[in-house]
């Protein structure tokens, strides 16, 4: 991602903001036409449109392929390990019956009629320290297991959970977007955390839980077989073996969260000056709390904890191996989506458009939301939209008198809201959710894109209210 931003800084826009915006809009329309009308595979279509967009925006010929590869590689660097390792954990939980144990416990505690709410609450808790991609992949087998048990559209169960991860990832430190935005604007990170939760929780309930259950009644999507337990014979074989305990399953789920929390928590303390961030012990603990390493440790732990006394070593190896094939297409399509976003960033579309919007004379919190929304739509990445908008708005915020610490925290959340709306084909999350839930592009736009837009819009209204009242 840093390399992609570097490209964007080095390449000067070839056209005005209006022309660049038109090119971006045409690129999205062409992409949708290729995928939805001509039925061209999304992976091929994304690469083709990325190439054509690079040519149309006059990225130097010698930089076209490096720019494409940078966007593709940076996305895979952050997604491939997380999806691959997360899929292994999910597969182990599913095949050994761990997902069913957890699902049964959740349903017994909350009741069958509140299963979507139970999954959403669990995802809110898991989503505090863990990134969107990894958290969703680990939760999907549990979501699918509950959906199979109670029937109905998988969207009823999946959207509240996916929305929970999206809210926590965008609104709440210690995730990188709100932390970076808070630091750039001079906001207190602890207060951003409090305001982020204060706004994020009701936003999730309205825009993800209520919308998800409503959409599930209108759009019937069957439970995908992607991360399923496999053929009936395999499921029956799993049921004939002793199931893992709820404590074991919970340990598998909590282990990566605890490790990641150590990393993000220590980073927050170091940023606040509470501890010495350069200390050796801090570096070692944070290294083991990096998401990829935390998931690797969890895979090894799950292989032992879930397989011991239930499966042979050969069986465990086969289970984790079978998890990789189905997610390869998702990883490649997600990487190609990152390529498209990288080309848009390198072309200067986001910066030119944000610069124009910044001069409209809007109130600071409204301008922050509008600029962040423009960057999100133009280049896809929520984290890039958050950090770039904060950098663009920092001089304006510094020059605006009368802003309280709560105002600054509310502005950070408003930027996060703008960076959440209108997830579409240049966002890797769009492809990740769509492919995992077995939806075509049109259905993903009607469900995931609408939910993300609701999350951003409802959250922005709450941010305005908080800023006005306090």
Summarize the structure.
This protein is an all-alpha fold and 470 residues long. The protein has helices spanning 2-10, 17-37, 42-56, 61-95, 98-110, 115-126, 132-150, 155-171, 176-185, 189-218, 232-239, 246-271, 280-288, 291-307, 313-322, 324-346, 349-357, 364-379, 382-399, 405-418, 428-436, 441-469.
Secondary-structure map:
Blueprint: H1 2-10, H2 17-37, H3 42-56, H4 61-95, H5 98-110, H6 115-126, H7 132-150, H8 155-171, H9 176-185, H10 189-218, H11 232-239, H12 246-271, H13 280-288, H14 291-307, H15 313-322, H16 324-346, H17 349-357, H18 364-379, H19 382-399, H20 405-418, H21 428-436, H22 441-469
Query: How many angstroms separate the termini?
Result: 36 Å
Largest sheet: none
Strand content: under 5%
Secondary-structure element order, N to C:
HHHHHHHHHHHHHHHHHHHHHH
SSE-based structural type:
mainly alpha
Helical content class = over 70%
For the residues shown, what is the average pLDDT?
81
The strand count comes to: 0
User: Could you list the spans in which at least 5 consecutive residues all have pLDDT below 50?
Assistant: 1-10, 229-236
Gyration radius, in Å: 22 Å
Distinct helical segment count: 22
Shape, per Cα inertia axes: globular
Provide a descriptive summary of the structure in words.
- The protein is an all-alpha fold.
- It is 79% helix and 0% strand.
- Helix 1 packs antiparallel against helix 4 and helix 17 (349-357) packs antiparallel against helix 18 (364-379).
- The chain is globular and about 65 Å long.
């Amino acid at each position: 991602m840093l390399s992609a931003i570097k490209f964007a800084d080095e390449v000067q826009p070839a056209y005005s903001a209006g022309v660049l915006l038109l090119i971006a809009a045409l690129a999205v329309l062409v992409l949708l036409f290729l995928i939805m009308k001509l039925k061209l595979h999304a992976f091929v279509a994304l690469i083709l449109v990325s190439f054509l967009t690079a040519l149309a925006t006059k990225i130097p010929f010698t930089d076209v392929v490096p720019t494409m590869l940078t966007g593709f590689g940076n996305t895979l660097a952050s997604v491939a390990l997380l999806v691959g390792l997360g899929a292994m954990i999910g597969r182990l939980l599913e095949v050994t019956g761990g997902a069913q144990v957890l699902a049964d416990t959740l349903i017994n505690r909350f009741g069958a009629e509140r299963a979507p709410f139970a999954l959403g609450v669990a995802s809110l808790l898991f989503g505090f320290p863990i990134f969107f991609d990894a958290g969703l992949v680990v939760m999907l087998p549990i979501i699918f297991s509950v959906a199979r048990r109670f029937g109905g559209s998988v969207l009823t169960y999946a959207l509240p959970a996916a929305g929970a991860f999206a809210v926590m990832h965008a609104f709440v430190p210690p995730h990188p977007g709100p932390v970076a935005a808070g630091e750039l604007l001079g906001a207190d990170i602890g207060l951003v955390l409090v305001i982020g939760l204060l706004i994020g929780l009701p936003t999730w309930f309205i825009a993800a839980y209520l919308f998800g259950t409503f959409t599930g009644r209108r759009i019937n999507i069957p439970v995908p077989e992607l991360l399923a337990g496999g053929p009936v014979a395999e499921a029956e074989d799993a049921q004939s073996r002793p199931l893992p305990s709820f404590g074991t399953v919970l340990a598998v789920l909590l282990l990566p969260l605890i490790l990641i929390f150590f990393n993000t928590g220590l980073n927050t303390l170091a940023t606040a000056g509470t501890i010495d961030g350069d200390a050796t012990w801090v570096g070692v603990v944070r290294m083991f709390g990096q998401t990829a390493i935390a998931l690797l440790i969890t895979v090894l732990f799950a292989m032992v904890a879930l397989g011991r006394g239930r499966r042979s070593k050969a069986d465990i190896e086969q289970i984790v191996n079978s998890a990789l094939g189905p997610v390869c297409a998702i990883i490649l399509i997600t990487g190609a989506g990152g390529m498209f976003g990288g080309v848009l960033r390198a072309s200067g579309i986001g910066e030119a458009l944000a610069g124009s919007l910044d001069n409209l004379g809007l109130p600071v919190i409204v301008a922050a939301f509008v600029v962040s929304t423009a960057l999100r739509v133009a280049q896809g990445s929520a984290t890039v939209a958050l950090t770039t908008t904060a950098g663009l708005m920092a001089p304006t915020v510094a020059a605006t008198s009368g802003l309280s610490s709560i105002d600054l925290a509310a502005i950070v959340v408003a930027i996060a809201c703008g960076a959440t709306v209108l997830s579409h084909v240049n966002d890797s999350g769009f492809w990740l959710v769509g492919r995992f839930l077995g939806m075509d592009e049109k259905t993903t736009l009607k469900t995931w894109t609408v939910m993300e837009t609701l999350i951003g819009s409802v959250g922005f209204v709450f941010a305005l209210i908080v800023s006005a009242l306090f």
